[in-house]
Design a protein that fits this description.
Blueprint: E1 17-21, E2 28-29, E3 32-33, H1 37-51, E4 55-59, H2 76-86, E5 91-93, H3 99-107, E6 113-116, H4 123-126, H5 130-137, E7 142-145, E8 167-169, H6 171-185, E9 191-195, H7 204-211, E10 216-219, H8 221-230, H9 245-258, E11 261-263, E12 267-271, E13 282-285, E14 294-298, H10 300-311, E15 315-319, H11 332-347, E16 351-355, H12 357-366, E17 374-376, H13 380-386, H14 392-398
Parallel strand pairs: 1-4, 1-7, 4-6, 5-6, 7-8, 9-10, 9-15, 10-11, 15-16, 16-17
Antiparallel strand pairs: 2-3, 12-13, 12-14
Helix pairs in contact: 1-2, 8-9, 10-11, 11-12
Bound molecules: adenosine-5'-diphosphate and magnesium ion.
Amino acid sequence: MSSFRTLDDLGDVTGKVALVRVDLNLPMKDGSATDVTRVEAVKPTILELADKGAKVLLLAHFGRPKGKRYSTMSTSFVQGDVEEVLGKEIMFIPEVMGPVVEQSIGILRNGDIGLLDNVRFWPGEEANDPEFAKGMAAHGDFYVNDAFSAAHRAHASTEGVAHHLPAYAGRAMEAELKALDAALGNPEQPVAAVVGGAKVSTKLDVLENLVGKVQHLIIGGGMANTFLAARGVDVGKSLCEHDLTDTANRIMDQADHAGCTVHLPYDVVVAKEFAANPPSMRICNVHEVASDEMILDVGPQAVEALGDVLKTCRTLVWNGPMGAFETEPFDTATVALAKTAAALTEGGSLTSVAGGGDTVAALAHAGVKDDFTFVSTAGGAFLEWMEGKALPGVAALTA
Ligand code: ADP
Ligand code: MG
């Protein structure tokens, strides 16, 4: 891993202004947050800097105002939630640069926290305008990025500012980068990747990156159907991207050359209609799917065999559920494999890292979200990392 500076590399910060990029894009209902996980994630960094006597300026986006100021998208809406999680009062500052920010810094005492307004109110943010970045940087003595979830965007607050100030990874960013490095950057081998979810087309780059890096590629979910079809299996009316069978074959060839074993289900759970516990549901071999049936989950024999594969591995990286897990009982394979991975992690033989919106939901549903080594809630940034892409917000910290 190219090295990045962390809060451990900071000298005395007493009285210095820390410009801290955080993710406060909280899900809201009726004016208050329904989930404050993102605030909890950045709390250690904020409090550490405040405890060390810095004046902490929080920089964040909120919604998609697209370069215009909307009163409904002000970060002041999350001020109360942030204060509650931090256990501290903070000062709302309705700008991101200029005299108002300067005056506010004058009022803040050492260890106080200010919340700047939604950085996406200004078009310079998403355009990564160097002048805009410079204007924000002018108020800080150093910059801390603790928003891995926004690191795939080269925006002024996630990338540009880092060129004008000494830049450091916050504690959440540091933990995320270390976990991701242990999973794919510099993992203990053998490595297994589970890739599931709905469609091959959304995860082509992920698959192509993984075949060169892992020893076992376990394909489940709707995307397994496209691979099965590529191998000549009749998948009936399953979700399947028939136009991508050549691509699937190419990926399987690449895996062959790279010494990566591709695991596809050999038994599956099928039904004639997509509903909870449909009467037509049955388990069958992949070669026995009828033309009016669809594959909705991986079968029990395959799940058992995949568990055995995980037992031989030291590292697991997982994105995408194995079946249509939102509908009972098509969560069975996902839950069973997640529990196996969690047990192996607890037993100390497996480092397990997972991410992806639906994957996080599926692991929570399986009750094992806290039993994996690391579960990333970063969404798009996690996927781009799985695609092997350099994330601009991370690159700016290592330059
Ligand atoms: P993530 O958000 O973790 O990256 P995806 O969005 O790629 O995951 O995929 C999740 C979706 O895939 C879920 O909504 C799930 O219902 C769907 N899915 C999984 N297996 C199947 C299947 N066999 N048929 C249809 N949909 C499936
Ligand atoms: Mg999804």
